[in-house]
Amino acid sequence: MRAFTYERPTRLDDAVALLAAHGPDARLLAGGTDLIIRLRDGTIRPRVVVDLKRIAALDGDIREADGALRIGALAVMTDIAADARIRRDYEALAEAAAVVGSIQIRNRATLAGNVCNASPAADTVPSLLVYGARVVVTGPAGVRSVPLDEVFVRSGVTTLAAGEIVTAIELPRPSTRCRSVHVRRTRRRGHDLASVTLTCAIDTDGLTRLAYGSLGPRPLLVADDTGLLADPSAPDGAKAERLETLFAAASPSARSMRASPDYRLAMLHVLGLRAVGTAIERLARGSAG
Amino acid sequence: MTADLDASVRIDVTVNGRPRSLEVRPHHTLLDVLRDDLGLTGTKECCLVGECGACTVLIDGVSVDSCLVLAAEADGSAVLTVEGLASGDRLDRLQAAFLETGAAQCGFCIPGQLMAAHALLAANPRPSRADVEEGLAGNLCRCGGYEQIIEAVLVAAERLGAAS
Description:
The complex is a heterodimer of chains A (289) and B (164). Chain A is an alpha+beta fold and 289 residues long. Helices cover 31% and strands 25% of the residues of chain A. Chain A has three domains: 5-51, Uridine Diphospho-n-acetylenolpyruvylglucosamine Reductase, domain 2; 62-171, Uridine Diphospho-n-acetylenolpyruvylglucosamine Reductase, domain 3; 185-285, 2-Layer Sandwich (Enolase-like, domain 1), CATH 3.30.390. Chain A contains ten helices and 14 strands. In chain A, the strands form four sheets. Chain A has a five-stranded antiparallel sheet. In chain A, strands 11-12-13-14 form a four-stranded antiparallel sheet. In chain A, strand 2 (26-29), helix 2 (35-41) and strand 3 form a beta-alpha-beta unit. Chain B folds into two domains: 9-84, Ubiquitin-like (UB roll); 93-163, [2Fe-2S]-binding domain (DNA polymerase, domain 1). Chain B has helices spanning 30-37, 93-101, 110-123, 129-135, 146-163, and strands spanning 9-15, 18-24, 56-59, 62-65, 78-80. In chain B, strand 3 (56-59) and strand 4 form a beta hairpin. In chain B, helix 2 (93-101) crosses helix 5 (146-163). The longest helix of chain B has 18 residues, at 146-163. The radius of gyration of chain B is 16 Å and the shape is globular. Chain B starts with 8 loop residues before the first strand and ends with a helix. Chain A binds chain B through residues 1-6, 8, 21-22, 25, 29, 32-33, 36-37, 39-40, 47-49, 51, 53, 101-105, 107-108, 190-191, and chain B through 1-7, 9, 25-29, 48-51, 53, 56, 62-65, 67-70, 72-73, 116, 119, 134-135, 137-139.
């Protein structure tokens, strides 16, 4: 690994100032499960690594604030998967966090890092998208809150400004009762990056939201407000046609590594239909659990 | 304005119960420092991308891949490596069970398996077979000795239960 300077600020302002001073020569470190791999293989060569874990204003707390569930930037996947409120109200996020890497990875990898890394295959992102997550950032211009759907551009590229630091991810309270499920396709049983990663959420008003990743440069969010997908008695054929329309923007790369574009598209439709079925079953069963 | 890239960072860590004050290079991982500076070579270097688990250690009781943790990040924490499991000549229950069941074949992955199992049993003293499979899923064994490894953890858990 190439040498760099290690900075461990205790104040958020100092971290923002370090980013402003060093620009692209500085990188932020939270869990490190993506960053350290890239430092080692030389794909990134920063002069300064800024460790966020001693900043007093940052935490890994998961708590209710202003009608939303606030997940601190340092919350790791193990915490997300185990949190009782997330398991109850945002179950697909708990399911997705539980399949990221191994236990050792989940003990370090942060939810905020999964977002900032902007991998098209990030497993927690489809769930965050269907729940309408917002990303809270602090930068030279102050604090702002951005809808997650506006954050992603393409692999590794976000709309967040160079000097901005994510401090929390906020999930709004669902206005009506909603059940959800996360599903994924991997090459093998056990730990693997997803060839398709998808979340479906259906609420009692009949609105179905689906978000999926690993099928193009960024994860995508779509919605069906016709009530067709949420209708337990609607035939699968009609639902498959509706999904065909909703998934029209899926564009897996021809250079994709883990599965061919055709396979990914085929599995997207299989998993989409399956996830709709599971969300309907969960909604019919009533309360979470 | 950037500080000297060769500058080292001073860290205070407790390794296997012994307090240590170390000067580490910022780009050295906890794995590098354990093996090269402290001579604790039980922790193995293998994939270096967090997939094989051979470098698993516990930081403040939490299992991590030490190849993906900078040594500087461990400042102020307690690190447990495979060398810290036995008390003197006496193996701990997990190590004894691994020996009895023939869980160690070539042995390379075993320190990581032991540390992952140690974290599992600390959190879940009576794991099911499925719990053990998931608990050790981040630790690969090229010899394919998974059955014996799982059995060893279940045997150790049983003894732990019987002793308490």
